[in-house]
Amino acid sequence: DVKVTQSSRYLVKRTGEKVFLECVQDMDHENMFWYRQDPGLGLRLIYFSYDVKMKEKGDIPEGYSVSREKKERFSLILESASTNQTSMYLCASSNIGRTTTDTQYFGPGTRLTVL
Amino acid sequence: GQNIDQPTEMTATEGAIVQINCTYQTSGFNGLFWYQQHAGEAPTFLSYNVLDGLEEKGRFSSFLSRSKGYSYLLLKELQMKDSASYLCAVPRGDSSYKLIFGSGTRLLVRP
User: Fold this and answer.
1) Is A95 near chain B, with CB under 8 Å?
2) A6, closest residue in chain B (CA to CA)
3) How does pLDDT run across A68-114, given as a tens digit for each residue?
4) Are A73 and A24 in contact (CB under 8 A)?
């Protein structure tokens, strides 16, 4: 079974703090993703990584950065947390599909509150 | 552009059948995913359709019509534990690795 883990289920931070969210997958997947999920807005892609040290901006990258130094680990960084970054953050991973898109598997999520 | 539409909420009775619809517009089609997400938890994969027709997996079935840009998820013999959000997703036109998700349909199963 694919396992994607995230460093925290719940996190409370103050405005202006630097926040690190970590994600680890154990299936040797090439692709890793960070999403945020807000009521009525669905899942929105923040950043995507297709290989170690490789990354692409998603739909809402502003205020975020990422790091992928090892294949199994993908970190999301909030450089200076703001209240509008209060959200559920979901990490996912997938293999490179040979002919079609491969399934994304999600971690349990981190509910971040910025005060 | 690319867009996915799903109903926001549905209610059904335990033991009944419910159909959750999804319509999509995408440039280039590369399959459609359904995920289930219980409140406060991560989405879990339910099904993937790339060809037209119905695919059955136990109590859950998923249907796809590529010409109509339409899919549905059919849940039979509903159980209370089926109360969850159901997300429809399609790969983006610019990258088959990245998905666009619908906002999800929240299903409430009543006794």
Assistant:
1) no
2) B42
3) 999 999 999 999 999 999 999 999 999 876 545 578 999 999 999 99
4) yes
Residue B66: pLDDT band (50, 70, 90) is very high
Q: Which of B94, B103, B97 is nearest to B35 (CA)?
A: B103
Nearest C-alpha neighbor of A3 from the set A31, A30, A33, A23: A23
Rounded to the nearest integer, the mean pLDDT of chain A is: 92
* Among A43, A45, A88, the residue to mutate for chain B (most B Cβ within 10 A): A43
Strand A110-114 and strand A87-94: the pairing is antiparallel
pLDDT digits (tens, 9 = 90+) for A33-42: 999 999 888 8
Most confident of A54-58, B43-47, B72-76: B72-76
Interface contact flag, A101 B30, Cβ < 8 Å: yes
- The verdict on A108 touching B (C-beta cutoff 8 Å) is yes
Q: For residue A73, count other CB atoms closer than 10 A to its CB.
A: 14
- Contact yes or no for B44 and A106 at CB 8 A: yes
The token duo for A102 is 């491969």
Interface with chain B: mutation pick from A1, A96, A100, A104, highest number of B CBs within 10 Å: A104
Q: Tell me which residue in A31, A58, A109 faces B42 most closely, judged by beta carbons.
A: A109
- What is the reported pLDDT for B49? 93
